[in-house]
């Protein structure tokens, strides 16, 4: 049992789970816009997520706080290095415009982690900005990149789906911020720190309205049912979120929402 827990913790700590969530959202983008499966695009996002998230999570520990590097962190570093090589490989299979946009997304991720400006903290520590940067990066990586790589003309539905994807990620991050309330630096001014847990939950419930409306605009009964299940699922995650919840509540269950969404599209 202890070994299984160690494997499961490694699966979460190495960002494989969140990478699978991003992969699921890419597959949803393929489905929504009737794009033929593009393996280099999907795997570029998958391995890019591993590299990006591990860089964000562990850079400060090693570079700034100089924490001792344990065995698990060494394995994660090796995994990240292999993923970086694969990201480079798949990068050259993408269209030129996709490459340019992906570099912009990477630059935003780097800005989020590293202090580029003298006497300024990184963007991760800018008051009230974190949630928007993360949501925009997710939309860019899981929707904008696959869309432009497929060379599809921009249509109104693309922008509508961008709003829906942004709302989804924003709501999921709200749950994370509620659970991290006790540990977050007060200067971050996260949403729960600014307006309180109760109002944050009300905000999350309110944002599910445009998410639902976008879902029913497809006029498909199949999509209608799936979006209804998604709304109920998100409402429950928001409702039961509190700072005393286990880390697995967000790091596994909440981050599984995009995977559940993809599986419902495939099997329902």
From TrEMBL:
What are the entry keywords? Membrane, Transmembrane, Transmembrane helix
Keyword Cell inner membrane in annotation: no
Q: Which residues cross the membrane?
A: 12-35, 41-61, 73-91, 97-117, 129-148, 163-182, 202-219, 225-241, 248-267
What's the protein called, per UniProt? Prenyltransferase
This protein's species is: Flavobacterium azizsancarii
């Amino acid at each position: 049992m202890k070994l299984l827990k160690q494997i499961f913790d490694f699966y979460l700590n190495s960002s494989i789970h969140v990478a699978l969530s991003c992969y699921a959202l890419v597959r949803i983008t393929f489905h929504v816009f009737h794009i033929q499966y593009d393996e280099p695009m999907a795997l570029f996002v998958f391995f890019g997520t591993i590299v990006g998230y591990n860089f964000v999570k562990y850079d400060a520990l090693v570079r700034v706080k100089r924490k001792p590097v344990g065995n698990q962190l060494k394995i994660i570093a090796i995994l990240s290095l292999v993923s970086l090589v694969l990201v480079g490989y798949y990068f050259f299979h993408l269209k030129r415009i996709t490459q340019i946009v992906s570099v912009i997304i990477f630059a935003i991720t780097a800005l989020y982690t590293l202090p580029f400006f003298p006497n300024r903290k990184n963007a991760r520590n800018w008051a009230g900005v974190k949630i928007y940067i993360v949501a925009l990066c997710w939309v860019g990586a899981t929707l904008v990149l696959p869309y432009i790589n497929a060379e599809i003309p921009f249509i109104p539905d693309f922008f509508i789906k961008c709003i829906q994807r942004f709302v989804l990620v924003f709501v999921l991050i709200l749950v994370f911020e509620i659970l991290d309330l006790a540990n977050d630096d007060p200067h971050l001014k996260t949403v729960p720190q600014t307006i309180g847990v109760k109002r944050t939950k009300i905000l999350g419930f309110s944002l599910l309205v445009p998410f639902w409306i976008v879902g029913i605009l497809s006029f498909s009964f199949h999509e209608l049912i799936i979006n209804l299940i998604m709304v109920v699922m998100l409402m429950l995650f928001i409702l039961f979120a509190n700072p005393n919840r286990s880390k697995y509540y967000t790091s596994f269950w909440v981050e599984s929402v995009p995977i559940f969404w993809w599986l419902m599209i495939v099997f329902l």
